[in-house]
């Protein structure tokens, strides 16, 4: 018995695209500075360039680490936008398809949730590693939906088979996220925070200097 029709898939993708566009609209209304937009472009480029050398190895990805760190440092909006744009840019090198939409929503939610939980993730390395580990599987579970249209019949057994087959690659993704967050989060956090203070919050830095001058 089939549980999904072609019409259901079309509505599903329209809904996802609508949500993504709505979030972009909200971000646009916040009137981000040119520096902020350039910084997002740089973050996306870092995520893409980190992934291209390992593109032939399923599950081994650096982009998730960059997106999670971006969400923690820059907040949920920037984390989401960076996550959504990364597969689009990556697709220019590796190819675009309907699966790109699922990658956009998966990485977008990854950056969004990292921003929402930033205060906790920044302080606790074990929670941060667990977060990255969990998202290695969540990402796989979301993007695995792209395989369902190729099944002759979408049943519980066939769906379980798809997810079971992806488990080794999801595990590699999860372990990679956790290891990178344990070893390199501090370094990238410092680099990203310098960029944030310089290009997004320069007024905060200047006001701090003025207060220090007045107090002296």
Question: What does this entry look like structurally?
Answer:
The protein has one domain: Orthogonal Bundle (Arp2/3 complex 21 kDa subunit ARPC3), CATH 1.10.1760. Helix content is about 80%, strand content about 0%. It has 9 helices and no strands. It has helices at about 5-30, 35-50, 65-75, 75-95, 100-115, 120-125, 125-145, 155-200, 200-215. Helix 3 (about 65-75) packs across helix 8 (about 155-200), helix 4 runs antiparallel to helix 5 (about 100-115) and helix 8 crosses helix 9. Mean pLDDT is about 85; it is low at about 205-215.
Could you give a short description of this structure?
This protein is mainly alpha-helical and 216 residues long. It is built from 9 helices and no strands.
Helix/strand/pairing category: mainly alpha
> How many whole angstroms does the radius of gyration measure?
19 Å
- Give the percentage of residues in beta strands: under 5%
- Taking pLDDT < 50 over at least 5 consecutive residues as the criterion, the unreliable ranges are 204-216
- Write down the domain tally: 1
Write down the overall geometry. globular
CATH architecture assignment name? Orthogonal Bundle
Helices and strands, in order, run as HHHHHHHHH
The number of helical runs is 9
Give the overall average pLDDT: 83
CATH uppermost class: Mainly Alpha
CATH topology: Arp2/3 complex 21 kDa subunit ARPC3
Helix percentage: over 70%
* Major beta-sheet overview: none
Question: In whole angstroms, how far apart are the ends?
Answer: 77 Å
What's the number of extended β-strand segments? 0
